[in-house]
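User: Can you fold this complex?
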Amino acid sequence: MNVVVCVKQIPDPAVPGELTSDNRLKRDGAKAILDESDSYGVEMALQLVDKAGSGEVILVSMAPNGEVSGLRQALAMGAARAILISDDALAGADALTTSKVIAKAVERAGGVDLVLAATESSDGYTGTVPAQVAELLGWPSLTFAKHVEIADGKVTIQRQTENGYDVVAASLPAVVSVTAGVVEPRYPSFKGIMAAKSKPLDQVTAADLGLNSISAGQSIVSVDAAPARQAGEKVEDDGTAFERIVTYLEELKVI
Amino acid sequence: MDFAFSEDQLSFRDAVRDLLTRECTASVVRDAWSNADGRSGQVWDLLAEMGVLGILAPEVDGGLGMTMIDLVLLIEECGRVALPEPIIEHAVVCAPIIGGVVSGSRTVTSFIGGSPFALYADSCEVALVERDRRLFTVERAALRLTPETAVDGSRRLSTLEWSDSDATEVGGPLEAVAAFDRGALGAAALLLGLSHRMLEMSVEYASERRQFGAPIGSFQAIKHHLANARIALEFARPLVTRAAYSLSVGDPDASTHVSMAKAQASDAAMLTSEHALQCHGAIGYSYEYDLHMWMKRVWALSSSWGDAGLHRARVAKAVL
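Assistant: Here's the predicted assembly.
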């Protein structure tokens, strides 16, 4: 069983970000880390391959400047190899362009049974790439999985909903997006960290994947500061304030 | 010559920092003050799985066979979160000379170097003890423990007694000195980590706490305290790193370098704890606020494994 995990290497959220002159996130010199939301997919893939008894976990990542530090984190967790697409032509790529690249990289990986991805990245938040990759590959798309099982050539998931979950199944190969609660990601061991440096890392350009005339597909016209948080409502307690609290919680459907 | 830490050493530090930040929160330290064994629960097992406990253990025992320069940054991280575990005793002092420590399931404490107490002896499986400048191991069942009160509620202390017939010799005078040096350096690294966290807490507090219409950190008296603590720590750090390197390469002056490091780290940590308390004011010593747990660990460790005076005397004896 071969599982591809789409992983994004994002600027460290702990470090204040900067924008370039064309309104994109400045990545030169910024420390990149594995998007935490992708660590769940990596862990899920490792468990599925381990359970299957054979196969490997392959990472696919698109990042500028040949960035590998986030990939090394996932390789240290136990993934077998990685494909990195790094190409100046892809700078600022929109979600569809990214999906085209990832779909081609999945084909390059070869013999893939399952693609796992997070529901959305922590820096872009479009949340559309997994479904687009599935469409481009012509594979079923299963989303928001909080539990994944593989058996008899099928993948069955528990799809998170507002009120609980739906059970959804599809034949393999398929693309599944997993939620943050799907598994508890392992910490890399020191032996894993050292081994990660010598694991195969296939760095390619868009042209290497057969995408010769691809471009970012979007430009960012302007960036505005997030609106300041609105002042909250103050309620003077005349002995009936609890009623206002109850009403508020009811409006939120908490109670 | 390149004196910077290697990529692997920095990656190990980042991995340990990530683990401890998530798993060894202040509430874990607080729980250790009142739980049965004073320890962190699953954090010990996670550190073992990562490989921290076996860094110095020989490869034949399943360890990584590395040296103090590979471990020193990780011990500092343990200090940063005030890890309530016998990390120095187990991973620094005993791992190179006692087998079976890598998994962490057979926890080892130590009672050497003239220390009046053993740490966590009641929850350890074996103790490394010293008699007549020789090292021995004694199984927990053969130890007679007398509990002692500790200023740091998570540090479960006891005095130990044992019969010679229950002790297995594992080293002579040279090994005893080397074990003490490792322990003293481990304590110095822990003190650096503890102090850096106290300084962070103080800077955060001084940035938020307002008085006379401004954050108190904008007042010169507060700035001076924080800057002086930072200076003391920055002067201690190179000595700790140098001593770790000396132990790693078998420098003949390694013991002196360790004493220079421990003396400086003890003083810097005590200074930082005093200034942290001053900058916090009354809230700093309240039980509900986290700072006191870091402060009391510093008080305990600054005099453990030899206080600053003992180590200065050791340096003086070597150089005069």
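The helical segments of chain A are 36-52, 69-77, 95-109, 129-137, 190-196, 241-251. The interface with chain B takes residues 72, 76, 187-191, 193-194 of chain A (CB under 8 Å).
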